[in-house]
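User: Structure please.
Assistant: Input sequence and predicted structure:
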Amino acid sequence: MFRPSTFSIVAHDPAAHAWGVAVQSKFIAVGAVVPFAEAGAGAVATQSFANTRYGPLGLAMMRQSLSAEETLAALLAGDPGRERRQVGL
């Protein structure tokens, strides 16, 4: 049985001071809702009932020097639909 799937990866190379995010899916235009990245801040991927606010809010928090763990905790705390989401920073 075929199941539609989406795969995302968020990576950080501390030596190069670089971040990246990529997504693969059978669903068209996922690049508009899943990946978010900003030089000097970080990268976010949100999928599976994606909360597209996670991208801009997560980048803003990391830009203010919050860690990925702190940012994720803050994003999830304010989201009543958090149990249905998949997110990586």
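The chain has a mean pLDDT of 91.
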